[in-house]
Amino acid sequence: MNVFKVYKDVRKVGQNYGMPMCFIDCGLGMNYKIEEVVGKLGKEGLKKGDWVLIRNGMSEKGVGLLVEGLKFIGLKVEVEAVSSDRTPGWFLKVDTWTVFYNGSKIFNFGALRPRQDMVISKGDGLEGMVEQIKGLSQVDKGVILDGQIDFNLLFNNKVRVYKDVD
After folding, report:
1. Selection from 18, 12, 7, 104 nearest residue 58 by Cα
2. Which domains does the chain have, with CATH numbers?
3. Torsions phi, psi of 109, nearest 5?
4. What pLDDT score does 166 carry?
């Protein structure tokens, strides 16, 4: 799988907001075997119960196996997706999903678990996101503030507001 960067940082959005965790940014970079990625995390000093975030990995081959490997060694896993990604077969193996709404209806929002997974929109997509998931009251919602937003829309739909993005 292609990995651009492995590093530690503090989560700035989602259910794990404020948590220190290890980030795996997939994409243009080195092509690693799953065990090599796990080895890089070991070099970061991770121990059982620590959080790992996989970003931009939904199109990478082997991410499901990576999730299984991370879970096997006792790490907690969060995965980022966008609403145009297909919901993978290994969905339930992930501890927390953060799905960024981009106007698409491909991701199965109905599979998201309450107080565990989250859908987040940029400010201009908030109305579309709320409309699309209005029947799914269990889905936690968030918006990344980027201008003026209708406070009543936030209040009536219990949408968390984030002022910064990863």
Report:
1. 104
2. 2-162 (3.20.20.70)
3. -65, -30
4. 52
Which two three-digit tokens encode residue 115?
């107080």
pLDDT of res. 117: 94
The CA-CA-CA angle for residues 65, 44, 34, to 5°, reads 20
SS3 call for 129: helix
At 76-131, the pLDDT tens digits run 999 999 999 999 999 999 999 999 999 998 999 999 998 899 999 987 788 888 88
H helical segments located in the chain: 34-43, 63-72, 126-132, 151-157
DSSP state of 152: H
Residue 71: helix, strand or coil by DSSP? helix
Buried b (16+ CB within 10 A) or exposed e, 139-158: bbbbbbeeeebeeeebeebe
The model's pTM: 0.90
Contact 143, 154 (CB under 8 A): yes
